[in-house]
User: Fold this.
Amino acid sequence: MRTFRCTLCGLCCRASPISILPHEDYILRALARRLGVKYKSRPGYRVFDRRTGRDIALSYVMELIDGKCPFLREDNLCMIQNIYKPLICRSFPYVPKQVKYIISNELKFVFARVEYGVSGACPVIKEDKEVIMKLMSMTPYWHRMYFPQEYIAAMEMEEKRSLLLRLLSKLWASGIVDIDSSHSGARNTINLYELLRTYFPNLPYIMGLGETINRIRTR
Ligand code: SF4
Ligand code: SF4
Assistant:
């Protein structure tokens, strides 16, 4: 059975700003510093913390620079492929189409509902249209069959997102933060991963990032 095969055309690294998770913004910023690459990102979804008067960023958007991802090499290869490639780059073209953050004031709990879909920006999807249609008519789990690697990356993305949100909920339940979902746009924003690391120093290891962080430090 035919499965998705990336042709390394590099189009997805030029298509649009790239949505990343908080720990990925931290890693990419550090990598950019070490590799001498210009890096620009902005917080995506934010919640306001009444306790500190600042926003907490639950996601980030990495900006394109001169029409491309700053980590894209001239030969269309990713310069951080073997160090840390963002999960959305690993799952592409199977990507989150809609991410809805749900905040329960009653339960002091934050979680996300994510809908995945296929990006039409990838030329392979257009070429494989018939194969995909056939698989879709055979099984509702066609995406697992057609995107075996990309599906695993997508699952990992959701595991990491959910872990970060569970730990944030824990801080809320302990009174360390006090989330107000109806207000954001504060002057200061803290990255959720960096906030959590203050209270969970072994977070990089819990998230399976220990080796990556060490690799960045030793470069
Ligand atoms: S657009 Fe598709 S084929 Fe091109 S690099 Fe991205 S995933 Fe691979
Ligand atoms: S990080 Fe790598 S794979 Fe992701 S958009 Fe940038 S160059 Fe492409």
Residues 148-173 form the longest helix (26 residues). The longest strand covers residues 94-104. Residues 11-217 form one domain.
